[in-house]
Amino acid sequence: MGAIFCALLLAMQLTFIQSAIPRVYIKCSVWDSGCLARQAQIKVPALTSGIPELFTEILDPMLVNFARVNLAGLKMDLNNAVIQGLKNAVIDRINIDTASRQIQLVYHTDLTMKSRYSAQGSILNLPFNGDGEAVISAKKVHMEYLMPFDISKDAFGRDVIDLKGLQYWFDVKDNVRFDFTNLFYGNKGQIFSSVEKCSYTDFKCLKRSFQKALPLFTEGIPELGIERMDELVVHDKTYKLGGLDLTLKDARLKGLKTTVFDHVSIDTNKKVLFTSYHIEKCSMKGKYEGVGTIKVLPLRGSGEIFLKFRNVALSVNSTYVMENKNNKEYFIPKSYTFDYEVKDSAHFNMTNLFSGNEELSNAVLTFLNENWREVSKEFGKPIIEEQTRQIFKNVVKYFSNSPVTEIFLL
Ligand SMILES: *[C@@H]1O[C@H](CO)[C@@H](O)[C@H](O)[C@H]1NC(C)=O
Ligand SMILES: *[C@@H]1O[C@H](CO)[C@@H](O)[C@H](O)[C@H]1NC(C)=O
User: Phi then psi for 72, rounded to 5 degrees?
Assistant: First the structure.
């Protein structure tokens, strides 16, 4: 969260540089830092309330029309931000070093920012989405500026300090409080309100509810950072399949919404969630690069890959723990084991095998398709594993954001 504040301060500092200090008139001897600090302190109210003659803007309250925060996992836009507190700044130190021509200014103050925000993404692996009001208050913000300068003459022939730039550091000594309204778009209630709640022991109900939640879940839940899964983006990756290195790129897996749950149960003593289900139809399309052997046949090429499966049966057993956050209990899946089998059929196709040599290419594709059941075991495993991992991650996101009382009948 500190990073958001950092970005805000940056926006603030930029405004500060542009507007506040085009010229600073010094009436103390430059080595008298006590006098300088007192002078600056006297100037704080004037500087922060704007000096029309110097074309400085009002700094307190400071208005920032727009700022965009772009952090690793988070995009946040701030609109119409009002930052208050600079007029209470207490100047701790000013040193003017005439040899290196640098001014050091240190002050502290409490700052608050009120703004409209709109955010998408996550912070520290927690989803963070919403659109509303943000209030951020920071106590005892310590700021330190380092400003190189030149001495030049102003229009009246007076020597003035002409600031050339600004570097700054800051530190929040006390604490920062963040309040965001409408986080998760106000979705504080049950996410799948149309899905029946079940007791842990009612396996029939659990199966029904999992089935009912499935299409809602595969559509994605943006407010929880859960991506759409009915066309799942397969992360680019190289798979080691026995003797074959297969790299997939720009691949998409379709068909998860044809999943049918066959069994769902929970063992509350061992803390395991058992699920078995089958995917009626699924297919994957993408780019591939392959080199090595599959069974005994050589395989080499790079082009398009297309896989089609009918009736993939899966069993996923997941351990879970109960966690307490803010006095609410959460059911958090932890690790899982899985098993799968392609029951009805599999079809494999790759373009540009052996640089387009049709004879070799047909031989390999015929082999793959005639031996689909065995090939699926080897060929399919890492790919299905990868998908299971991605889906599991999303399931964890869902459970981590929904107290058990919203999911189960207790
Ligand atoms: C899940 O647990 C059931 C019951 O203990 C077991 O029959 C099945 O093989 C397990 N599946 C996996 C993938 O571990
Ligand atoms: C693979 O796809 C190509 C292009 O769509 C098609 O011409 C070819 O018949 C397919 N081969 C197999 C084995 O499905």
Answer: -40, -60
Can you give the C-alpha Rg of the chain in angstroms? 31
Select from 349, 367, 371 the residue to mutate for testing ligand 2; criterion: most ligand atoms less than 8 Å from CB. Answer: 349
29: how many CB neighbours lie within 10 A of its CB? 10
Q: What is the pLDDT of residues 170-192, one digit of tens each?
A: 777 777 777 776 666 555 445 67
Please tell me what DSSP assigns to residue 33: H
With a 6 Å cutoff on the Cβ, whether 190 touches ligand 2 is no
pTM for this structure?
Answer: 0.58
**Distance from the alpha carbon of residue 210 to the mean position of ligand 1, in angstroms:** 18
For the stretch 50-92, pLDDT in tens is: 656 555 567 778 777 777 777 767 788 888 888 888 888 888 8
For the chain, report the end-to-end CA distance as a whole number of angstroms: 35
Peptide bond into 22 cis (omega under 30): no
Please answer whether residues 243 and 292 qualify as being in contact, where contact means their C-beta atoms are separated by less than 8 angstroms.
yes
Ligand nearest to the CA of 363: 2
